[in-house]
Design brief:
- By secondary structure, the chain is mainly alpha-helical.
- The protein is 69% helix and 3% strand.
- A two-stranded antiparallel sheet has the order 1-2.
- Helix 3 packs across helix 13, helix 4 packs antiparallel against helix 9 and helix 8 runs antiparallel to helix 16.
- The N terminus is likely disordered.
Length: 548
């Protein structure tokens, strides 16, 4: 729809459902005139009673704020955020890789089952994902945005001094609480400051994932090669300092990135968060501050936001014969109830409202769960697998092992760009690209167990590195597109929960499967292949279509 010439309409839809039949659905629309150029419809969440979902007035105001950022355009403030939030993606992939790299030297020194280290990481990430996501909706984005990297850095450096594997596992779990909050918080911060026309950049942010793996491998290579024991038979602490230096370095890097966020760049509180707490004037002030930083001016005024409330109240009075509408609770506990309402039964039921939508939702949950099991199984134990297989080939030195890890990181860098090209191909689209890349990823893992030389093994794993990056790039794009907008938060929570829970199961599988064999690799490969075939069964193809 073309935007009006002089003004636009911020529309607020309030849907009341009496059944699954679309003809029984009554839609009430509130119109609020603004001076800001209108953009496409944003997320619309269901409002089915107090606490069941977001208040409809909130969505009218959110639309106005979105139009204000669209009027402002993409400026240097948003580009700075692209890098600063990219640190979160960087950290999110770096630390699982770090944990995997720690396995060979720490197993040699402490003589323990490496699966416990991965289990501590998975449980910490699960706690962090839940805690930081909810708390950022209660107390705001800024403190969570600045705290996650700090917590990760402090506990990582402390882990470098671990006297035994119990202390190491505990500190890995602690730093993973910080790591787990990166994506839910950073994605919210980024999306709430960029114009809607540039929301595709959220997908591009995945390039930072690949850089996280690359940097971790590059730093680990010289440290582990020169300051590590060759075997567990003779491995005192004094001759196995490499992994400790590595944790000091990576923890220090996280602390530096925290300082860049906290001391160098001033992050304003999210305008949408401020507005949701009834602080409209502060929200408008933030929009104007960002506009000034970009060398622009904004026409947004507090009156535009307040008008949303007046129009909604008039509509309620007209609809109910003068009865008063329930005021929006802007207290902390009101925010808690709205946040927890995202997980309410009504939103879950909406994701399964029709057989086709229920099938799509179920398939997505299973795919995320399978990949949640497969990815940590492979990434967590591949350094140990490479070392033992390399030893079979006569070249299992620490130097060769981490050289290969760097190579795997480098070849995976183009994955996000390849994914961006493939998803728009007519005969592939999102669904075909996801299915194909996931199946091929599993095939590469199975093929790696047939290698009879170190070079062949490295080649198969290079293929995995590329296709897995393609797979993740598409997965993070297609999932929100396949959920109805008003229930997208609940859908995202469901798939993320499945992913993290299965991620916590991965170390248990490895513990009982014996990481000295290729069994974890077989399990991971099977999960990828099954997930890929399930992707072919998705009933919707988002390519070339607007998400609802």
């Amino acid at each position: 729809m073309d935007a009006p010439t002089h003004s636009s309409v911020a529309q607020l839809e309030r849907e009341s459902y009496t059944g699954s039949d679309p003809e029984k659905r009554a839609t009430q629309t509130y119109n609020v005139e603004t001076k800001i150029a209108q953009v496409g419809q944003h997320d619309v969440f269901d409002d089915e009673g107090a606490g069941a979902g977001m208040d409809p007035v909130y969505h009218a105001k959110a639309k106005v704020l979105g139009d204000a950022f669209q009027e402002m355009g993409m400026g240097k403030y948003q580009w700075y955020l692209f890098y600063l939030t990219g640190f979160g993606w960087f950290s999110d992939n770096l630390w699982p890789v770090v944990t995997g790299l720690l396995l060979p030297p720490t197993i040699n020194e402490f003589n323990y089952q490496g699966g416990w280290l991965k289990l501590a990481q998975a449980l910490g990430s699960l706690v962090g994902c839940a805690f930081w996501g909810v708390s950022s909706d209660i107390w705001g984005r800024r403190w969570a945005f600045n705290s996650t990297l700090f917590i990760t850095g402090v506990f990582a450096m402390a882990a470098g001094a671990s006297p035994n594997y119990i202390a190491l596992c505990a500190l890995v779990g602690a730093w993973s609480v910080g790591v787990g909050g990166n994506l839910p918080v950073d994605s919210a911060v980024f999306l709430e400051f960029i114009p809607p026309s540039h929301q595709y950049l959220l997908t591009v942010l995945s390039i930072w994932w690949a850089f996280g793996q690359l940097v971790g491998s590059l730093v680990a290579w010289p440290l582990f090669a020169n300051f590590s024991c060759a075997s567990a038979s003779d491995c005192p602490r004094a001759s196995n300092q490499g992994w400790r230096y590595f944790l000091y370095a990576m923890g220090g890097l996280m602390t530096l990135l925290f300082l860049l966020r906290f001391a160098v760049f001033h992050l304003h509180e999210s305008p949408k968060f401020l507005m949701s707490r009834g602080r409209d004037a502060e929200a408008v002030a933030v929009v104007h501050a960002v506009a000034r930083f970009n060398g622009k001016e904004s026409s947004l005024t507090p009156e535009m936001l307040q008008r949303c409330e007046r129009e909604a109240e008039k509509s309620r009075e007209h609809e109910g014969g003068g009865r008063e509408g329930k005021a929006v609770d802007t207290s902390v506990w009101g925010s808690v109830r709205r946040t927890m309402g995202t997980f309410g039964g009504s939103h879950v039921r909406s994701l399964f409202a029709t057989p086709k939508l229920a099938f799509s939702t179920s398939i997505l949950i299973v795919i995320w769960a399978l990949i949640g099991l497969a990815f940590p199984l492979y990434n967590g134990f591949i350094p140990y697998f490479l070392a033992t297989r390399g030893a079979d080939f006569g070249d299992g030195s620490i130097n060769i092992t981490y050289r290969n890890q760097v190579i795997l990181s480098v070849v995976g860098l183009p994955g996000a760009l390849i994914a961006g090209w493939m998803v728009d191909l007519p005969y592939l689209g999102r669904k075909g690209t996801l299915a194909t890349s996931t199946i091929v990823t599993g095939v590469f893992l199975f093929a790696s167990t047939t290698a009879r030389s170190s070079d062949a093994l490295l080649g198969w794993n290079c293929g995995y590195s590329v296709t897995s990056n393609v797979m993740y790039g598409v997965l993070y794009a297609i999932s929100p597109e396949l959920f109805p907008a008003k229930d997208r938060g609940t859908g995202s929570a469901l798939v993320a929960s499945a992913n993290h829970i299965c991620g916590a199961l991965a170390p248990i599988v490895a513990i009982y499967a014996n990481i000295m064999t290729a069994v974890p690799i077989y399990v991971a490969g099977a999960c990828f292949i099954v997930g890929g075939f399930l992707a072919f069964l998705l009933p919707f193809e988002p390519r070339g279509k607007a998400s609802i």
